[in-house]
Write a structure and sequence with these properties.
single chain, 4% helix, 284 residues, 7-stranded antiparallel sheet, mainly beta, Thrombin, subunit H, Trypsin_dom, hydrolase, serine-type endopeptidase activity, disulfide bond, 2 domains, Peptidase_S1_PA, binds 2-acetamido-2-deoxy-beta-D-glucopyranose
């Protein structure tokens, strides 16, 4: 679970940081802040090493939901021709803030099973959710690795949610090796569906968060990552990044698969024993 002592670092780049312990404050800052050790212990990096010299490298994120499962987006687990990528090819990295330079905290594993939502569509992007079972269980009682509780309630607009990740902060930016946190308050659905924003693509089982302004926000490499929202004494996994990679551009806020609409489906996947063969067409 996200530590309830979530500290929001109000730092612009490397300028002196100010510690803010009131999690109800929406940080009005430009740019992300470097995450603290153990601040988001359920956040993992998921990547598929290149299978051919010129093949694209899949780089995504996921969220630990129990000892051996993570949630991610469906688009993170299929290749360009919509075939399920072999689970064994995935590299799942937990416990480390810097994904380039491993620390002793790093826990790496791969996947044994991947279950994609049967209703997943690519255009428009809907039901973008997948459950990945790891080959090795995550360590229990670890300071920087833990599972996230999931939100099951309707949340108010403006709630100061947070996104954690390694994506670039600008269109041209290279992937940031150190995990950042980005404030992502919940946006009014109508604003998000406006003609100059997401044009009605944000349906009920999705949630929009971030900013309509040109501030650094989610970008390449963040897909599948979790939107975490404050709950009583913790932060809960509320969304899975599906589209809206603004990379600092105005009017492209992040759109997330809203996990509370998929509770039943998620729980059903956790006990499945059948395997979806690699190569299975997951969407048309
Ligand atoms: C996607 O995977 C399928 C089945 O494994 C394979 O035949 C196809 O060539 C792959 N497509 C790309 C673009 O890599």
């Amino acid at each position: 679970m996200l530590r309830n002592t979530l500290v929001v670092l109000l730092a612009v780049f490397t300028v002196t940081a100010k510690c803010e312990l009131d999690t109800n404050i929406v940080p009005s800052m430009v740019g992300g802040s470097v995450s603290l050790e153990g601040q988001a212990p359920s956040v993992v990096s998921i990547r598929v090493p290149r299978q051919a010299p010129n093949a694209p490298e899949t780089f995504c994120q996921g969220t630990i939901i129990n000892l051996n499962h993570i949630l991610t987006s469906c688009q993170c687990v299929h290749n360009e021709t919509n075939n399920l990528i072999n689970p064994a090819w995935f590299r799942i990295i937990a416990g480390d803030l810097n994904i380039v330079v491993p620390s002793y905290r790093r826990f790496s594993t791969t996947a044994s099973h991947i279950y994609t939502h049967p209703g997943y569509t690519i255009s428009p992007r809907t039901n973008d959710i997948a459950v990945m079972r790891t080959t090795t269980s995550f360590p229990a009682g670890h300071n920087t690795i833990d599972w996230a509780p999931r939100n099951t309630h309707v949340l108010r607009n403006g709630l100061p949610c947070v996104f954690f990740g390694w994506g670039a902060a600008t269109v041209t930016g290279v992937l940031n090796p150190v995990q950042q946190s980005i404030p992502a308050p919940i946006l009014e659905r109508n604003d998000c569906n406006a003609a100059n924003v997401h044009r009605g693509l944000v349906i009920d089982n999705m949630i929009c968060a971030g900013s309509l302004a040109a501030t650094p926000n989610v970008c390449t490499g963040n897909l599948g990552g979790g939107l975490f929202c404050p709950a009583r004494n913790t932060f809960e996994l509320t969304g899975i990044l599906s589209f809206g990679l603004g990379c600092g551009t105005a009017n492209i806020p992040g759109v997330y698969t809203q996990v509370r609409f998929f509770e039943q489906w998620i729980n059903q996947q956790l006990t499945r024993t059948d395997a979806t063969p690699a190569g299975t067409l997951v969407a048309s």
